[in-house]
Specification:
There is one protein chain. By secondary structure, the chain is of the alpha/beta class. It has one domain: Ribonuclease Z/Hydroxyacylglutathione hydrolase-like (Metallo-beta-lactamase, Chain A, 4-Layer Sandwich), CATH 3.60.15. About 20% of the residues lie in helices and about 25% in strands. It is built from 6 helices and 13 strands. Strands 6-5-4-3-2-1-13 form a 7-stranded mixed beta sheet. A 6-stranded mixed beta sheet has the order 7-8-9-10-11-12, covered by helices on one side. β1 and β2 form a beta hairpin. α4 runs parallel beside α5 and α5 crosses α6. Bound molecules: nickel (II) ion and manganese (II) ion (MN). The site of manganese (II) ion has 6 residues, from α1.
């Protein structure tokens, strides 16, 4: 599979079978986005929660490509209420799609749609594609059960928020990597807004000091996993 980083918490997974999955596709209003909403497409869209910087352009893309929104029950219902295809899931549950497996995890955060609707619990997500396990933490504070997530699904990749203020800052994010023990950590959710300014090089250096691997992805960079 391939993994592309757009900035903030927005990623694209391309499975070997060609299916394209977007996670938290926030382009419009994202000052760091290397693409506009017209330049992406999707077969599926995974949302960790409903805050505007994660819901982003999801509904427009879903409508354009008839791509199901995969999310916790309440947020999926909200998508369905707007006429979109949705696949309702919830924390702790997994499901096998034609691109791979999706399992939602806890995240310590909040969730409300930009127009003020209840959107259920925020989540992280473990996605297994072509035999590789990827954990996108969503927005969250540090929690010890990250260790359990890594034990139940040995992780190839962990996408970790480091921007502080709304999520873990660098030092907590380093501890999160130690707990979940992925083969490779990738920082996210930083430098989009002044309040989440953070230095990914500092995160990388501190992760490597713990004997773990880290890679900083440039905005628009795609890697083969
Ligand atoms: Ni959030
Ligand atoms: Mn956020």
């Amino acid at each position: 599979m391939k993994l592309k980083y757009f900035s903030h918490s927005a990623f694209q997974i391309t499975a070997d079978n060609g299916k394209i999955v977007l996670i938290d596709p926030f382009f419009t209003g994202n000052p760091n986005s290397p693409v506009s909403v017209d330049e992406v497409k999707a077969d599926y869209i995974i949302l960790t929660h409903a805050h505007g910087d994660h819901l982003g352009d999801a509904f427009q893309i879903s409508k354009t490509y008839d791509a199901p929104i995969i999310a916790v029950n309440e947020l999926a219902d909200y998508a369905a209420s707007k006429g979109l295809k949705a696949h309702n899931m919830h924390i702790g549950g997994g499901y096998n799609f034609d691109f791979g497996r999706v399992k939602f995890t806890i995240a310590h955060h909040g969730s409300k749609t930009p127009d003020g609707e209840y959107a259920g619990e925020p989540a992280g997500v473990v996605v297994t594609v072509d035999g590789k396990n990827l954990y996108h933490c969503g927005d969250t504070g540090l929690f010890y059960d990250m260790k359990l997530i890594g034990e139940m699904t040995p992780l190839d990749l962990m996408l970790v928020p480091i921007g502080d203020n709304f999520t873990m800052g660098i030092d907590d994010a380093v501890k999160a990597v130690e707990l979940a023990n992925p083969k490779l950590a990738i920082p996210m959710h930083y430098n989009t807004f002044p309040v989440i300014k953070a230095d990914p090089a500092e995160f990388k250096q501190k992760v490597e000091a713990k004997g773990k691997q880290c890679r900083i992805l440039n905005y628009g960079e795609e890697i083969v996993v």
